[in-house]
Amino acid sequence: MDEETRAAFGRMDRYFELGHVQHQELRTEMHAGFAELHQELRTEMHAGFAEVRAEFKSEIGGLRTEFSGLRDEFDALRAEFRSFRDWATGKFAARR
Question: What is the pTM (predicted TM-score) of this model?
């Protein structure tokens, strides 16, 4: 093999080695970028879920308060109906 051919093969080897090094660097950068993006998305999702969870708990608390108020009103209506029933029963019994 003559000197010119060896030099050409040497240049091709350096070209492919450089390409391989650049590929590895790009791959490392991509992995780092994806890891960072993954962490950002994970953090945002956790924050979003925490916000939704807090909103849900707040809504549930409001519904419980409202339900408790409705229960109190229902109990008051029930007591009023019983009083009316007792009054009406007494009136009908007094007429006989």
Answer: 0.48
HSE on the CB side for 17, CA within 13 Å? Answer: 6
**Predicted local distance difference test score (pLDDT) of residue 94:** 85
pLDDT above 90: percentage of residues in the chain? 91
pLDDT tens-digit readout, 6-41: 999 999 999 999 999 999 999 999 999 999 999 999
Q: Which 3-state string (H, E, C) describes the chain?
A: CCHHHHHHHHHHHHHHHHHHHHHHHHHHHHHHHHHHHHHHHHHHHHHHHHHHHHHHHHHHHHHHHHHHHHHHHHHHHHHHHHHHHHHHHHHHHHHC
Structure tokens at 21: 């090094």
- 11, 15, 16 from 3: Cα distances, Å: 12, 18, 20
Distance CA 30, CA 93 (A): 91
